Amino acid sequence: MNNNKNGLLFVISGPSGAGKGTVVNELLKTEELELSISATTRKPRPEDRDGINYFFMDEEKFKGMIENDQFFEYAMFGGNYYGTPKQYVLDRLSEGKDVILEIEVQGALQVKSAVPEAVLIFVMPQTLTELGSRLKGRATESAEQIEKRMERAAEEVEYISAYDYIVINDKVDDTVEKLKAIISSERAKAINNRNIIKKFKGEI
Ligand code: ADP
Ligand code: 5GP
Description:
Elements: E1 9-13, H1 20-30, E2 34-35, E3 39-40, E4 55-56, H2 59-67, E5 71-77, E6 80-85, H3 86-94, E7 99-102, H4 105-114, E8 119-124, H5 128-138, H6 143-156, E9 165-168, H7 172-188, H8 194-200
Parallel strand pairs: 1-7, 1-8, 2-7, 3-4, 8-9
Antiparallel strand pairs: 3-6, 5-6
């Protein structure tokens, strides 16, 4: 919770295999953040649980949600749709809760144009070779899909300048500390604490 009327919106993105899921999972153990659960048309992996990792759905349902303007942002990635359900994010932000999205680059750019004050954080490994090793080590995609994700990674890096922060995910613990530092700084910004100033002045 911050002392502003609306919560802050954090967006973590970066290449598939960078370690976003891993570090966000760690971050949520100690930080007060509401994680948005995305909708996707991708098939669940063995460890995936519906409603926890994603809301899994077919293309017809996803397209219905697009038509009904139910997405905050959405994108096609690796032949599947992924999107952030709008209402959950807006409700949490209006309750003054800070929200975190873990999404790919096209979606992050859509968020930035809709909400310029959103904090965009790009997480990447030290090298493309390391990214390849992580994707192979995770072993959740075929060799062909890994190849596509690697190609996509090289394209995604071109968009880094649209981001507010870059974090190299070398050691998980260090990455989590860096993310916490960014979150604390954003929460401490004067512009994000106007109500404290108003209270001090007796205006509210
Ligand atoms: P993403 O969510 O960005 O696609 P994951 O969190 O699934 O990435 O991580 C990809 C793989 O890399 C996983 O097998 C994960 O355990 C591993 N991994 C994540 N962070 C690191 C790290 N800092 N060092 C080494 N391996 C990592
Ligand atoms: P995966 O199939 O590995 O779970 O996810 C593939 C990519 O889709 C990842 O980069 C992940 O961050 C991204 N992603 C997950 N949810 C969303 C979402 O709601 N919107 C967008 N634009 N990307 C998402």
